[in-house]
Design a protein that fits this description.
It is built from seven helices and twelve strands. It has a six-stranded mixed sheet with strand order 3-2-1-4-11-12. A four-stranded parallel sheet has the order 6-5-9-10, sandwiched between helices. It has a two-stranded antiparallel ribbon with strand order 7-8. The longest helix has 31 residues. It is elongated and about 65 Å long.
Length: 248
């Protein structure tokens, strides 16, 4: 096991580099990506690169799978539970001008209005409770979204960046009922002020999380089934890597 593989999956091509840690030899490969199952493109690139899976010590994987899914709107069906009276905040955004900064075009929220529901609660900007969380309203909203066939859930309450007690409790309730692990709490993703920016970040995370999870699981299964015995490392936006187990 002397080889290190770096692979990048794009929408059109999958690029790979193989480094032999003993001899210093380097080989590269470029194959068409396989949108129906991107794992096949990775395996094809490894084969073309001349690396047997049982000889590979490390695979470092970068991908635009989630970026492409977002751009093409091939994302998971998401639902939102937010503070009562604020279900439209993520759609309204900060469009205070008809054409801000000369930009044109239309904006469509990733979560349709019928899947943006409300829970009774309110926190003020100092983190003080104005209205106590109504836990039954959370349960009702979760149940409604489950019945609507939603796959991924976002919980995003007003001023949770300074006090996330209500969001945390709502998340606990949701996870007791939700049929999978795709529950995103806004303050866990970005605990910073500005409801639109924090909510949008959480919404994007929720929309691509199932897409990436399914892809990574397929890739890990294919690699392990063909003889790769080590962890799969996935590139992060900060330039570092994380174990594929932390993603799924």
């Amino acid at each position: 096991m002397s080889k290190i593989v770096g692979v990048d999956v794009g929408g059109t091509f999958t690029d790979l580099i193989v480094l032999d840690d003993v001899t210093g030899a380097v080989r590269i490969a470029k194959v068409p990506s396989t949108p129906e199952n991107q794992a096949f493109g990775v395996l094809s690139a490894i084969e073309q690169g001349g690396a047997a899976l049982d000889e590979i010590e490390t695979i470092v994987h970068g991908t635009t799978v989630t970026t492409n899914a977002l751009l093409e709107r091939k994302i998971a069906t998401c639902g939102l539970i937010t503070t009562k009276g604020f279900r439209d905040s993520l759609e309204l955004g900060r469009r205070t001008r008809p054409n801000p900064y000369g930009l044109i075009g239309s904006f469509e929220c990733l979560i349709p209005r019928n899947l943006r529901l409300e829970a009774i609660e309110r926190m003020d900007s100092d983190g003080e409770i104005v209205t106590k969380l109504d836990e039954q309203s959370v349960r009702d909203a979760v149940q409604q979204l489950i019945e609507a066939g939603v796959e991924s859930l976002v919980i995003h309450f007003l001023h949770s960046y300074i006090n996330d007690a209500h969001e945390r409790r709502a998340e606990e309730i949701a996870r007791e009922m939700w049929p999978n692990n795709y529950v995103t709490r806004g303050s866990a993703i970005m605990a910073e002020y500005r409801e639109y920016e924090r909510g949008t970040t959480a919404m994007i995370n929720a929309s691509v999380q199932p897409v990436l999870d399914r892809y990574i699981k397929r890739l890990r299964d294919e690699l392990q089934g063909r003889g790769y015995a080590h962890d799969l490392l996935v590139m992060q936006g900060n330039g570092g890597t994380v174990s594929a187990e932390a993603i799924s």
